[in-house]
Amino acid sequence: MGSRMSPDALQDLVKQCLEAFYTRRISNLSGLRLKDVLKRKNPYLLRAIGIRTASELVEYLLQMHTQASDETIFGETFVEPIALAVSGGHKSSAKGIDLEVDAGTVYKAIAVKSGPNVFNSSQTARMNDEFQELYHRLRQHLSQLGKQFDPVLGCAYGKRVSPPTTKRRYRIVSGRAFWEELTGDPEFYLKLVRLMQDYPEQQKQRYQQEWAKAVNRFTRDLLNEFADSSGALDWEKILHFNAG
Q1: What DSSP string runs through 101-114?
Q2: CA distances (Å), 132 to each of 5, 103, 146, in order?
Q3: Helices 54-74 and 7-30, interaxial angle, to 10°?
Q4: What is the rounded average pLDDT of the residues 192-200?
Q5: Which stretches of 19-138 are assigned E, i.e. beta strand?
Q6: Residue 128 neighbours by CB under 8 Å, 6+ apart
Q7: Cα(84)–Cα(112) distance, integer angstroms
């Protein structure tokens, strides 16, 4: 399983994916507004952790937002494109499935995730249904070809590797094992981070400039709309906006 991508082609792909990641990160920040973030946060928690200044609240809100969004953006712009390119498969049109790979006597359907800490019971049931829907669509064709259907939840990092169970009718493969299954190379998971070279540092300056703009924008709006005449944060105004 896996395509034979030359080292130069893989290097270019990693660079392109990092470029896409930073472009999306910067776009995410540039369009961000204080009220959009504030309405999704717990104002009681914000008050309970002892935030007293506008700068503290702004940094906290931006950090929480970007930590949540970075994982999604990275998965879509880096993990999924690289997994597709090195797998030798094709992008799936099925809901919830990212890749389909014809691997000899096995036909793999792969849902790609960033990390292994995903899926509660309801999400597992939905994933089961999505794999099952694809299987029903392909069943007759695969039967004629004598191929076994292999549903996989593949995670870019972590150590979880587990077989299907009665409740979860797909395999979970993570980290080193996931990348090795896609490429046949047990060292591929290390190659990915090596191939980043110094490109993240080159891109970071662009991101920091956009971060500074977001901090200034959030601080201005917070003081204008959610502080009293003395400059103190007005938690009742914040709460009224969020839940009133």
Answers
A1: EEETTEEEEEEEES
A2: 31, 19, 18
A3: 140
A4: 95
A5: 90-91, 99-103, 106-113
A6: 168, 169, 170
A7: 9
**211 phi, psi to nearest 5 deg:** -60, -45
**Quick one: how far is CA 91 from the chain centroid?**
17
Calpha distance 111→129 (Å, rounded): 13
Paired strand residues for 227: 233
Q: Is the dihedral of CA 129, 134, 136, 139 positive or negative?
A: negative
Q: Taking the complete model, does pTM exceed 0.90, yes or no? A: no
Sign of CA dihedral 7, 11, 13, 14: positive
Binned at pLDDT 50, 70 and 90, residue 189 comes out as very high
C-alpha distances in Å from residue 61, one per residue of 40, 86, 124, 215: 10, 37, 30, 10
154 pLDDT more than 70: yes
